[in-house]
Amino acid sequence: MPGLELVLAVAMGVGLAAAVGFRVFLPMLVLSIGAYSGHLTLTSGLAWLGTPAAFLMLSVAAAVEILAYYIPGVDNALDVISAPAALVAGTVVSAAVMTDLPPMVRWTTAVIAGGGAAGVVQGLTSLLRAKSTTMTAGLGNHAIATGELAGALTLSLLALAAPLVALAFVALFCWFAVRVLRRLLRKDRPAASSSADSS
Length: 199
Hints:
Helix content is 83%, strand content 0%. The chain is mainly alpha-helical. The protein has one domain (2-190). Helix 1 packs antiparallel against helix 4 (74-97) and helix 1 packs parallel to helix 5 (103-136).
């Protein structure tokens, strides 16, 4: 059923792209391992992601990125750098797995769906970290970094094994993150208004 295969390919691309929103290089490393081991076919223009050189480069980059998010201050700086990087990486991983689409349709879908998913997830995690930094003086950021790492790995593996489940995971995360942010913003408003009244 070509239609179902196309839906699964797009779902896989969006799932991997959303995982990029948590960590830029880890989902690319998972993609590289899948392609290098022969479990995943990539589009011809991005087949280099399945080479030993790409695997080595992405392994080092993923390890450095993971460790850097546990360094206070560096994690917030990385969020600024990661925003444009996530959009590009999300587009690339999406395009890499949409093998049956014509190039124009593939890249358009990858930019809109893949880059969009990566950008939304990255934006939500950055906001959560910013709130954590304000409320806990950065002490709670380690928990967020661990959650993001788990989310990136889980979502990457889900995208390859069960793409539609990965999409449901992305939707659930976005819903939960928006609820948490709204609750945090509501707590800030009374404090801001009471300080304004006292002045």
